[in-house]
Write a sequence for this structure.
């Protein structure tokens, strides 16, 4: 696939490296000359200019791109780039910072395909490293919703029960299930939970502790509380 990434700073350049490692074609758009130089030294194709301007994005090949990632620290630039990308039929990804909070997420949520918050994603990784154990946050879906990956322990009250018998709180849903060392898939009602199995759950923050206690057990849930 071909991607246009606006911004060759910390977030943009790291994203470009990951995509390139997976074999995709990347074009970076950057206004700052030092960042342009750094990106070119890293052997990226770079268009020097303002990513919020259509002519610059056309120079970057937006007409042939599959997706556009607006990943600068400037929300106005990011939003303008996404609007241009939409005009050319691209999938668009808008970066916002945590400081903008919920009202900004809601304001732009319908105008782009995906909104990302690098600081929040970084916080999830740090939290997982600190907690360890049988619970791992995958993503924050909204201010009040999180997807977690839970590994069933011997202490789990649901160990030995089927998926159908797991009575999660009202504000929680099982999204995927995988046996120990097996692939994750759509959960079936007669899948049985055993030690080492993994369950992906979408849950409201208010019921995360209840989900942990049900699928992991009292001792581990207490240690992981407050995540």
């Amino acid at each position: 696939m071909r991607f246009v990434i606006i911004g060759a700073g910390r977030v943009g350049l790291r994203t470009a490296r990951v995509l390139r490692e997976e074999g995709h074609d990347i074009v970076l758009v950057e206004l700052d000359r030092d960042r342009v130089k750094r990106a070119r030294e890293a052997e990226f194709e770079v268009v020097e200019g303002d990513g919020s301007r259509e002519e610059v994005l056309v120079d970057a090949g937006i007409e042939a791109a599959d997706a556009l990632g607006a990943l600068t620290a400037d929300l106005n630039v990011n939003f303008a780039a996404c609007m241009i990308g939409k005009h050319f039929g691209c999938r668009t990804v808008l970066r916002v910072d945590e400081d903008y909070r919920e009202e900004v997420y809601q304001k732009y949520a319908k105008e782009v395909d995906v909104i990302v918050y690098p600081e929040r994603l970084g916080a999830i990784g740090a939290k997982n490293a600190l907690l360890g154990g049988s619970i791992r946050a995958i993503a924050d879906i909204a201010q009040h919703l999180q997807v977690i990956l839970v590994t069933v322990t011997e202490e789990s009250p649901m160990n030995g029960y089927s998926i159908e018998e797991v009575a999660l709180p009202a504000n929680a849903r099982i999204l995927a299930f995988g046996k120990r060392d097996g692939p994750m898939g759509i959960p079936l009602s007669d899948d049985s939970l055993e030690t080492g199995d993994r369950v992906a759950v979408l849950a409201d923050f208010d019921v995360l502790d209840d989900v942990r206690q049900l699928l992991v057990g009292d001792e581990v849930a207490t240690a992981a509380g407050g995540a």
